[in-house]
Design brief:
The protein is of the alpha/beta class and about 400 residues long. It is built from 12 helices and 15 strands. Helix 5 packs across helix 6, helix 6 runs parallel beside helix 7 and helix 8 packs antiparallel against helix 9. The two termini are about 20 Å apart.
């Protein structure tokens, strides 16, 4: 069986931020990349000739890296309480289905930000052992949350300094890759999304214990105090990063924004999850009209999206580091549509190249896998996609998937 593949295309974007290569080519040897450059400079080969795939109107890119998924959830508007009320066996099957959808649409690495019990840990093991197709998984297992806090239904409730320290240690024993902590409430009915949940000492215990064992910490924070507490505790990624006040009002805080930029914490804004709900409500409004409750939700959704876009634009302007993480599976955002999040990064001030990097090399750096994936370089894993068109001219071209390779094996 031939294990060498040469891919040529009109354009190649290697993910390192430089100019794209016109008439580019890449050579995959087994599971690794062995050569990248202009097609005219392809090295001569003796012996068996490789498989050659040519995409004259295509662009070669690194496999996409989605830093925020929830593979347990259906992404059809089902609330987390109902989604996680299913038996673990059903959640495993749904997770396998979602993982395959993500891979087939170009996501070769995905970070799961919270699943019930051991389901996402076993999902990762199943993919690694070849039982099911899916991206490279980076998993948090059960997110750590206060009693009754956001996503408590996933099984990660812990309180007090010693309680959260024990929770980290148990998750590490279970085999997680990073720690996800809910520093505020969220969409879970018993939680308080605009208020901080954990105190600073508890958060510091979580981050110090995680960092001691070389694990990154992703902090869900949907209020200004949650952001401040996450920064004070040394969290590595600010997830959602919204500036809600305890009373539910929204005020961008420039001083906190400067702290985010100075700290170098990664910001994962999860923009499209709100837009997905907006689109559904607008479509229903056009087709059949909205009831009073739905009309109010539409206006609230619009208002919150405007607030979030404005605060993210301000953070981009002062140099905060942004990465694309879809939050797909959650709310109305189905998996397999990661590129919509990447596209919305252009709405907050990133140019097309910046948006591409936010879903490839920068995303890989933010979750600690850039030594393996995120760029097209010799010796790195052969995670490669080909799209029709040029995403630097039209970011929507990222969704026109022509081929997907993970570890040198063609999935699409």
């Amino acid at each position: 069986m031939n294990t060498t593949t040469v891919i040529t295309a009109n354009l190649l974007i290697d993910g390192q931020g430089g100019a794209p290569i016109d008439k580019g080519a890449i050579v995959l040897e087994g599971s690794k990349i062995s050569w990248v450059g202009p097609a005219k400079d392809l090295p001569r080969r003796d012996g068996p000739q490789p498989d050659i795939l040519d995409f004259p109107n295509g662009t070669i890119l690194p496999g996409l890296v989605d830093v925020h998924t929830h593979t347990n959830l259906p992404g059809d508007g089902t609330a987390v309480e109902e989604g996680c009320d299913e038996p673990d066996e059903i959640l495993m099957l749904r997770s396998a289905w979602n993982a395959r959808k993500h891979l087939e649409t170009g996501v070769t690495t995905a970070r799961d930000n919270g699943g019930k019990n051991m389901t996402t840990i076993y999902l990762k093991q199943g993919i690694e052992r070849g039982f099911i197709p899916g991206p490279r998984m980076v998993v948090s297992g059960r997110p750590i949350t206060v009693t009754g806090g956001h996503c408590w239904v996933m099984g990660g409730e812990a309180d007090g300094v010693e309680g959260v320290r024990q929770a980290v240690r148990q998750l590490l024993k279970d085999g997680v890759d990073f720690i996800k902590v809910m520093t505020t409430g969220g969409g879970t009915r018993t939680s308080y999304p605009s208020r901080a949940s954990y105190g600073l000492e508890e958060l510091q215990a979580i981050t110090s214990e995680s960092h001691h064992f070389g694990k990154l910490v992703g902090a869900h924070c949907s209020s200004t105090q949650g952001i401040i507490n996450s920064l004070d505790a040394g969290a590595d990624m600010l997830i959602h990063c919204t500036f809600f006040n305890p009373d539910g009002s929204y005020t961008y805080n420039p001083a906190v924004g400067e702290r985010i930029a100075e700290a170098g914490a990664w910001v994962n804004p999860t923009l499209h999850v709100g837009t997905a709900t907006l689109w559904i409500l607008e479509a229903k409004q056009r087709e059949s009209g909205l009831n009073h409750e739905e009309a109010e939700l539409l206006e609230t959704t619009k208002r919150r999206l405007d607030w979030r876009l404005d605060s993210c634009q301000k953070l981009v302007e002062i140099g905060a580091k942004f990465v694309s993480g879809s939050d797909s599976g959650w709310s109305n955002y189905a998996m397999g549509l990661f590129q919509r999040e990447v596209t919305e990064m252009t709405d907050i001030g990133l140019n097309n190249m910046g948006a591409v990097l936010s879903g490839t090399s920068e995303a890989a750096k933010s979750i600690g896998v850039d030594h393996l994936v995120g760029t097209l370089e010799p010796t790195k894993e052969a995670d490669v996609i080909v799209v029709e068109g040029n995403p630097l001219a039209d970011i929507g071209a990222l969704s026109n998937i022509r081929a997907v390779f993970k570890a040198g094996v063609q999935a699409v």
